[in-house]
Specification:
The longest helix has 29 residues. The model has no long low-confidence stretch (mean pLDDT 92). This protein has 10 helices and 5 strands; from the N terminus they run βαβααααβαβαααβα. It has 2 domains: 125 residues, 3-Layer(aba) Sandwich (Rossmann fold); 73 residues, 3-Layer(aba) Sandwich (Rossmann fold). The radius of gyration is 18 Å and the shape is globular. 58% of the residues lie in helices and 13% in strands. Keywords: ATP-binding, Coenzyme A biosynthesis, Cytoplasm, Kinase, Nucleotide-binding, Transferase.
């Protein structure tokens, strides 16, 4: 098995890169999706969040009211820390389950762990390779305006709130430049896959 950490800022093309790797046969583990899964109705995660922050963070149907919770935690670092103490261990446990299942199904699997906060995730997971998707800020702003209808001020705020390109490059083994054509991006991913699959096969043979 070969574990790849995939990251990139908002509108950096990370989803396009992940889809292409999955098309080639990679197992996609999405940290954002898992973080939602662990606080779905009837989970211990949601029960713990409600116990910590009160019934006001629950919607009428019993699901998590993300806007209400966000209003609490984004303005209060201490509250955010308490939320992370509930969610992160559950995300890590679920991630470990999915990775173990992928390896059991195929010892030569390439697992792509898609995680925005990759630097933090590195404390919990040992990646074999870290891939960073990158495009100039102005390109990313244009994508947010065009594809998501986001106001420019909001696009700029979201980008500035995330790690910088330099911070991501500092942990990158491979940088995928998504600023050109779609085909240019896919060509880079195809070349990356050829390397990843070969390394995963070699590792499976050795073990």
């Amino acid at each position: 098995m070969f574990i790849v950490g995939l990251t990139g800022g908002i509108a950096s093309g990370k989803s396009t890169v992940a889809r292409r790797l999955v098309d080639h046969g990679a197992v996609h583990v999405d940290a954002d999706a898992i973080s939602r899964e662990v606080v779905e109705p009837s989970t211990s995660g949601l029960e713990a969040v409600a116990a910590e922050f009160g019934a006001g963070v629950l919607a009428d149907d019993g699901s998590l009211d993300r806007a209400a919770l966000g209003a609490i935690v984004f303005a209060d670092p201490d509250a955010r820390g308490r939320l992370e103490a509930i969610v992160h261990p559950r995300v890590h446990a679920r991630t470990a389950e999915l990775i173990a299942a992928a390896e059991a199904a195929d010892p030569a699997a390439v697992v792509v762990y898609d995680v925005p906060l990759l630097v933090e995730a590195r404390r919990e997971l040992q990646f074999d390779l870290i891939v960073v998707c990158e495009a100039p800020v102005e390109t990313r702003i244009s994508r947010l305006l065009t594809h998501r209808g986001m106001p420019r001020a909001e696009a700029e705020r979201r980008i500035s709130a995330q790690a910088s390109d330099d911070e991501r490059r500092a942990v990158a083994d491979v940088v995928i430049d998504t600023s050109g054509s779609l085909q240019h991006t896919l060509d880079q991913v195809d070349a990356l896959w050829a390397d990843l699959s070969a390394r995963a096969q070699d590792r499976a043979r050795v073990s």
